[in-house]
Structures
1.
Amino acid sequence: MKTQVGIIGAGPAGLSLALLLQRAGIDCIMLESRSREYVESRVRAGLLEQNTVDLFNELQVADRLHKEGLQHHGVYFNFDGESIRIPFDELTGGRCITIYGQQEVVKDLIKANSDRGVKIIFEATAAKIEDFETTAPKIYFKQNGEEHIVECDFVAGCDGYHGIARKALPAKCYNEFKKEYPFSWLGILANAAPSTDELIYAFHERGFALHSLRSEKVSRLYLQVDNDDTTDNWSDKKIWEELSIRLSSKGFMLHTGEIFEKAITPMRSFMIDNMQYGRLFLAGDAAHIVPPTGGKGLNLAVADIKWLSSAIIDFYNNNKEEKLKNYSADCLRRIWRAQDFSNFMTYLFHKQAAHDSFEYHLQKARFEYIQSSKAQATTIAENYVGLKDI
Ligand SMILES: Cc1cc2nc3c(=O)[nH]c(=O)nc-3n(C[C@H](O)[C@H](O)[C@H](O)COP(=O)(O)OP(=O)(O)OC[C@H]3O[C@@H](n4cnc5c(N)ncnc54)[C@H](O)[C@@H]3O)c2cc1C
């Protein structure tokens, strides 16, 4: 098979890239190791920054997002039962976030790609990338036990944290940064009307809790748990009791309901400081992971793609390689900012040491500063909705 851009991975990164290239008349083939049904039902992120929604609008893939997504103009921060609200629109000149499940984003993007004639090959696992230091790279992939080859001008490694693209980069061409946090998140989806109109992040002496939502009938909630904890230790009853304690504040009443998804996710920060080599370019989780506290994972993947698509389009349409050369540097500014914000949010809200310890008092001082300083609240709001220009 021959194409201009071979894309590995049909997650938010690969699917957005394909649509942007297709719109510019550039041919691509996308390989996805899982089935369409599997990727369309994989529950992950749900918070879309303003820039991400703007891009989906521009690509004309946001009709359902506007019908079913929930726009949030603020967020609640609780600390030891005291609640404050950060008003995004007031502090950021009208910018906001939209709550819309990643599996719905993926469904919309796959449909748009199929409708617009982009070739996505499902259940096709890329096994090897070769010759990417030349102008004729190749992707070897397997489907139904048979080996095939995609010959292309560029390879986009959008294959997530466990993919092959990052491993194909020469080890000496990047530095790796990694941080494992000493806690995990127990996340649930429940058929329960949200007990709040906007997300609640709560610090509690028993640990962090987050109340998020997916629709008017479905709530998404999380509890900080130990890294060695398992879902077997958490009956539905125990989960609701714990959420009710950790989220409690004046006038708050938790709605409960049937839990239909329960999983524990470790918290980690990871990144490499060079996302390209020759004609191989990495985007999204293939190059970086952030703890979910700041809601940045999916949004960073889409932000990388804006740089990558613009660089590839400039190469084909204007015969210019400048943007391709600068791709990593352009992406890294936003990635480091998001790493810092995600790390800040994680340390602000998770219980790390005994109540009344030095660490606890630092956390409390940070919370009180957000409460009293419009400058600090603005810093949080602009990072949370996503910085406009980097
Ligand atoms: C359990 C979980 C929960 C999360 N929760 C949140 C959250 O609450 N908030 C948040 O902001 N972010 C969250 N994230 C992160 C967010 O989902 C990711 O940042 C986002 O999916 C990144 O998109 P991507 O396209 O880069 O990668 P992915 O979505 O991982 O897509 C990569 C695709 O490549 C495919 N693939 C891999 N290897 C190959 C191969 N060899 N050949 C072909 N295809 C391949 C995979 O099947 C996958 O479909 C979560 C992630 C996980 C894993």
Note: Residues 5-72+96-177+269-344 form a domain with the FAD/NAD(P)-binding domain fold (CATH 3.50.50.60).
2.
Amino acid sequence: MSEELEGAHNKAESAQNAMTMLEMISGYWVTQILRATAELSLVDHVTAGASTAEEIAAREGTDPATTYRLLRAGASIGLFGDAGDRRFRVTPLGGLLRKGAPGSLREMAIVQGSPLHWQSWGVLPDAVRKGGTQMQAALGLAEGETQFDYFGRNPEEGAYFAAAMSNATGVVIDDVTRMLDLEGVSLAIDVGGSTGALVQSLMKTRPGLTGMVLDLPHVMDSAVRAAEEAGVLDRFSAVPGDFFKEVPAADLYLLKMVLHDWDDEQCVQILRNCRASAKPGTRGVVIEAVVGRIGEPSFGALLDMNMLAGTTGQERDFDAYDALYAASGWRRTSTLQTSTPWSVQEIVAV
Ligand SMILES: C[S@@+](CC[C@H](N)C(=O)[O-])C[C@H]1O[C@@H](n2cnc3c(N)ncnc32)[C@H](O)[C@@H]1O
């Protein structure tokens, strides 16, 4: 390569790097654009036929001029298309913010930009300095309180969080349903199962399967409502409880995005309580975004920062999970990678 060409190449590369860096730095703008679009139901309004900012603003009770600017920003990141005459249409990507649509991530968008996540992320440097989450200080919680105490006191955000968890289940459920062997399972317990999206989806594909959710008392009503909506209420029970104290017996223990909320000692306690009610040979399923090799693009490594910001937990690699299982009477027997960042680890009670 001639010196001149090399110089031009380097210049183009640094301009590209600067642009990439600028986009990363302003990533939070996108988070809040998505949150506002979801919270103000813009996609729902456009889907229902309101396609100008004025029409949408009239339905939602927002200001037409700022609604237009938000729609325009949304269009620039692919949520809306230009339908001419200052009209907007929803793209397939934007459709993922529609309330209740199959595969919808609307509540996830709201939750990620809402106070618990937003304010906890705002003190991330402090969390790294001090060696653990500073979310209590950021949210005015007492020392030792968790995000679940916060949700208990902020029921609207808590309900969005529960719905966001169902959104996340929607992302993996097809793979999980296809991969899981439910042979010999009559009762599956969704430990920390929130509204029960996972176990209820399995129940829908298995008419003989009985399902149970163990979660905190404030989640119970929505779990029962979700079971009713899923048409499985007659085979479903919602058990209010504390997985640090006791976990009811079942033939299959489901733990999806539960262990990542807690430190190692707490995880071992949860797993031991599952083991205490399980017979030897009973199976469990752990679904988490396992951290990959350093340097590889890893959703798990990024999600780990979310856990550092807002919880005492973390994302782990397989060795770390195996250590938790060994300390609690379980053994990992197989691992299945879904088409998403989430892995399905099958474990057995030893
Ligand atoms: C990150 S969410 C995961 C929910 C669900 N497994 C999913 O993936 O959609 C963690 C869940 O654990 C529940 N939880 C927190 N502390 C608990 C406790 N001590 N006992 C039972 N459930 C608890 C929360 O209410 C919440 O629903």
Note: Residues 155-179 form the longest helix (25 residues).
3.
Amino acid sequence: MECVISKNGTTVKGKTTYALQKQGSLLVYKNVEAEVCNNCGEAYLSVETTRKFSNLLLMLL
Ligand SMILES: [Zn+2]
């Protein structure tokens, strides 16, 4: 897909690190599957992955 930040960049499948912050605690997930821009390095999580993390965050509340 097209990167919304660098415009001329395209994303490729890759891995990123995703951090969740909750009440002073920091949870860091490494090697999260994402689409990563080959120009600026911006990572885009899939809808499915985003939902998964949203649920995780809710469970931590
Ligand atoms: Zn980009």
Note: Residues 3, 5-6, 9, 37, 39-40, 42 surround zinc ion (CB under 6 Å).
